[in-house]
Design goal:
Blueprint lengths: L4 E7 L2 E8 L2 H12 L7 E6 L5 H12 L13 E4 L8 E5 L15 H4 L4 E5 L12 E8 L9 E8 L1 H4 L8
Parallel strand pairs: 3-6, 3-7, 5-6
Antiparallel strand pairs: 1-2, 2-8, 4-5, 7-8
Helix pairs in contact: 1-2
Length: about 170
């Protein structure tokens, strides 16, 4: 498999890594590699245009974490819990696309209760769940918009808070 192109720069909130992904398979592999960095209590916010690859990345996270069940878009159910098949944390996969407002609208999901023992991944979470914790990983996926078959994605990983201050986001990638 081709290597993912990556570069890193220090940021006040930790480390920001920039990656170029050229196929859905590479996006899924990025998820598998990121899974090695994740632990219970981690909040991951995924942002990007429709079709950017947020669910594909999450599918890779699920594979890398060894969770049960096929990871698919939770758009209509809002959230899915994928228990670990081993001794790792469960994956809570949330799609906040249809939710307006901030954290108060998401209270029924009990993310604050799930977060300490799970890895919580929220698609379209920016501006909605940051209040859950100061420690979070933002993943932003940029793709060409319009009528295009271009598979190239530019991914930015940005860690916030003490948890991510010393994590080398480019190491396993």
């Amino acid at each position: 498999m081709e290597e993912l192109a990556t570069s890193q720069t220090p940021a006040p909130e930790g480390v920001t890594a920039e990656l170029t992904v050229t196929s859905p398979e590479q996006m899924q592999e990025l998820g598998r590699r990121l899974a090695k960095l994740l632990r219970a209590g981690d909040l991951v916010l995924l942002n990007g245009e429709l079709g950017a690859g947020k669910t594909t990345l999450t599918r890779g996270l699920g594979e890398g974490m060894g969770v049960r069940g096929a990871v698919t878009s939770p758009t209509f159910v809002i959230a899915r819990v994928h228990p670990s098949l081993g001794d790792g944390p469960p994956l809570v996969h949330v799609d906040a696309y249809r939710l307006g407002g901030g954290l108060e609208e998401m209270e029924d999901l009990d993310l604050d209760v799930s977060l300490p023992e799970s890895v919580v991944v929220v698609e379209w979470g920016e501006g909605k769940v940051e209040e859950l914790t100061e420690d979070r990983l933002h993943v932003t996926i940029h793709r060409a918009v319009g009528d295009t078959t271009d598979e190239v994605r530019h991914v930015t990983l940005a860690g916030f808070g003490e948890r991510w201050a010393q994590v080398d986001l480019g190491a396993p990638l």
